Amino acid sequence: MKVEELYEILKKSQEAKGYYFNKDKKKVFDLLEGLLLNKERYGYMCCPCRLAAADREWDRDIICPCAYREPDVAAYGSCYCNLYVSRAWNEEQIPHEYVPERRPLEKIFKL
C-alpha cells in the first residue's frame, strides 16, 4: 500500500469519528510512512512515535489509532504524535500544547 492510499482510507474513516489529520500534510505523510514501515516490520501498524516490542498483544495499546488517542485529543486537541487532531486544533482555536506520554512505564520499558 502506498502512503497516499493509506491517507485517503484513514481520512475518510477517522473524520467520520471526529478525528482529523494534522493540517501539516508533510508531517502526516512522514507518520503514515512510519506506520507502513512498522506494518512491514511487525505485521501491524503500531505508533511510529513509540518503541514497539514486536509482540502484537503487548503492543495492542499502540496500534494506530492507539488507545491513548481519544483521551489525548479530548484533553489536548491532538494525539501524542500529532497525527490525529481535533478540528479546533487544526483551526488554531486551541493552543498547541505538548501532549505527555500516557503509556505506562512498564509498557514502555517492558519491565
Task: Describe this structure as you would to a colleague.
This protein has 111 residues and is mainly α. It has 5 helices and 2 strands. The longest helix has 18 residues, at 25-42. It starts with a helix and ends with a helix. The model has no long low-confidence stretch (mean pLDDT 96).
Summarize the structure.
Helices cover about 45% and strands about 5% of the residues. It is mostly helical and about 110 residues long.
Keywords:
111 residues, mainly alpha, two-stranded antiparallel sheet, 2 strands, globular
Secondary-structure class: mainly alpha
Radius of gyration: 14 Å
Distance between the termini: 35 Å
Shape: globular
- Helix/strand order, N-terminal first: HEHHEHH
Topology of helices and strands:
Elements: H1 3-15, E1 20-21, H2 25-42, H3 69-76, E2 84-85, H4 87-90, H5 105-109
Antiparallel strand pairs: 1-2
